[in-house]
Amino acid sequence: MNRRTIVVALIFISVGIAFLIKLFILQVYDPSYKYSAESNTRREIINYPARGLVFDRNGKLIVSNQANYDLMVVPRELKKMDTLSFCRGLNISKDELKELFREMRSKLKRRKISSIKPSVFYKQLSAEQYGYLQEKLYKFDGFFVQRRTLRKYEYPNAGHILGYIGEVGQSTINEDDYYITGDYHGINGIESTYEKFLRGKKGYEYVLVDVHGREKGAFRDGHFDIPAEAGKDISLSIDIELQKYGEELMANKIGSIVAIEPATGEILTMISAPTYDPSLFVGKKRAANFATLNQDTLMPLFNRPIMALYPPGSTFKPLNALIGLQEGVITPESKYECYMGYSVGSFHLGCHSHYSPLDLRHSISNSCNAYYCHVFRNIIDQSKNSSVQDGFELWKNYLVRFGFGYKLGVDFANEKRGFVPNHKTYDKIYNKSWSSLTVVSLAIGQGELLATPMQIANLGATIANKGRFYTPHIIKGIENDTIPSKYKTIRETNVDSTHFRPIIEGMELAVWGSDGNTAGIARIPDIRICGKTGTAENPHGEDHSVFVAFAPKEDPKIAIAVYVENGGYGSRYAAPIASLMVEKYLKNEIHPTRKWLEKRMLEGDLIHASE
Amino acid sequence: MPQNNSLLKSVDWVVVIVYVTLVAFGWFNIYAANYNPENPVLFDVGREYAKQLLWIALSGVIIWVIFMTDSKFYVAFSYFLYGLSVFLLFSVIFLGKEINGAKSWFEIGPVRFQPVELAKVATALTLARIMSRYDFSFKKTSNLMRVGLIWMLPVICILLQNDTGSALVFFIMVLPFYREGLSGNVLVFALIGAVVSVLTLVYPNVIILAIIIASCFVFLAFKIQYKFIGYALFFGIIGFSVSYIAFKVLGKDIRLDLFTLVGAIFISIYLAISGLNKRLKAILPAIVFMWGAIAFTISTDYFVEEILSEYQRNRINVLLGFKDDPLGAGYNVNQSKIAIGSGGFLGKGYLDGTQTKFDFVPEQSTDFIFCTVGEEWGFAGTALVVGLFVFLMIRLVILAEKQHSVFSRIYGYCVASIFFFHFSINIGMTIGLAPVIGIPLPFFSYGGSSLWGFTTLLFIFLKLDTNRSELIR
Ligand SMILES: [Zn+2]
Question: Domain Penicillin-binding protein dimerisation, which positions (chain A) (predicted)?
Answer without folding.
Answer: 48-215
